[in-house]
Amino acid sequence: MQPEVFVDILQEAMFMVILLVSMVIVPSLIVGLIVSIFQAATSINEQTLSFLPRLIVTLAAIIYGGHWGINRVMEYTISMFARVQQVVG
Predict the structure, then answer these.
(1) Main localization of the protein (predicted)?
(2) C-alpha distances in angstroms, 58 versus 27, 28, 88?
């Protein structure tokens, strides 16, 4: 039971969280930036104009990337169960 093992597990977990969150957040940020530039150029200050496209893109990212994300989480969980012997004994 060495500290390096726990550091590796924590590093892999943090990378998994960053990867899964960025899968949903990055497309939303890009669409939000595009809509904000459009609103600034046309002087339209409507709140729903910025909310609705980001909502649609976020839902689309979850729908299309959800299968990949679930597979990544399953692979990580299986690898954690395989490392139980390394951590415990």
Answers:
(1) membrane
(2) 7, 6, 40
